[in-house]
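Table S2 (text version). Query chain:
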Amino acid sequence: MLATLKSTPLPVTLLVLSFLCPFELSIYIADLRLPPHRIALLLLIPIALTHIAVRRDIRIHAFDIVFVLYNLWTLAVFTEHTPDSSGFVFGGSLALESLGAYSIARAWIRDRTSFLAALRFLALAVFALLLIALPETLFGHHFSHDLLQAVTGVEVPRKIETRLGLTRAYGTFDHPIHLGTFSATLLSLVWFATRSRKLRYKRAAIVALATFTALSSAPILCLFTQIGLIAWDRATRGVAGRITITLTSIAALLLIASMFSNRSPFAWIATGMTLDSWTGYYRLLIWEHGLENVWAHPWFGIGLDDWKRPWWMVSSSVDAFWLVLTMRTGVPAFLLLATAIILLLWSTARLGGQSRDVLIRRATKAWVMSLLALALVGCTVHYWNVLHAFFFFFLGMAGWIADPKPARVRRKTGQRRRMRHIIPTMSYPLPQPA
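Corresponding structure-token output:
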């Protein structure tokens, strides 16, 4: 553990630790609430942006520019919708989480050494979450939130929910679904980036168990999506054109299902692959009426206004990151973010897949699988607060693959590392005269 802490870049360590800090540890300045992860981002983002600007081994790419444009659009839309300071504060908070977390990963995860160190630290974080969440699931108490609420007097909106005879755990997060999604995201990464088979199975089991404690359908879907992709990768290894064949087969199956079923494939997944079928059906209704709001306000969205829906849909929450994003800030925001992710994905897959380093190829494969699972889960989960920042931190983790260090920088780095190993071997004490 100490070796992992030493090898992980300090800003990355601080940010991941802030992800694990509960809401009750927030600091209030006037009417502004600053949870721990936003405090860390405020402190680190100026250093990260300076780091990116001055380092010769970091080049600005198209996906970086589009990410910045997405954040500027988000800030402008909320400011325009709400003339007072609340719109600027809300939009600024989102931009701080997205651009800040992305920039920190982009600035300090610059090679496979720092990437693997960050991954090991994230695996440790999931293990720590499991130690907190498992007793909650088994004994029916949110121990961390109960303790901090008693100490600080700050109450987190939460309730005891049971599924399958067990309690949905919160861990240190604001909602069980955030605990599950955070944990499930790491499955492909720990699977492909861990060389030892025994350690690989152990880490995968920890990730799966931590995910299960949330007892939430979407994180479990995220988990099984990655398991399916890992199995597909193994089964089709060596098959020419396997991606084209697989995508064609999936499209054919979806078409057949649409022809012979009275429900769409999305409806079947939403209601049939959930722990609570009513929850899945309600999400379908959210999408149906949410899209009506999108088409009514396609350019600038509805901002912080409440969305229009039938009177009996009492809750204003929308459990879909992609839908919330488009409803609030318009279709251009969705297109900007989707374009940035696609450009990053394309560069990562192209450069990482062609690398001569086996570990880089495996890291690329793992990151792509986790990203696909996260994108799918974003249709049924809203990424807010810590999970919103973690999503963009995860995107930034692939920056070193899409933007590899120039050869001359790698040579200089390698020379410095070799000198650190050579010089100590020459520092023996001189023999003393008899």
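Notes on Table S2: Residues 419-434 have pLDDT under 50 and may be disordered. Residues 111 and 269 are 38 Å apart (CA to CA).
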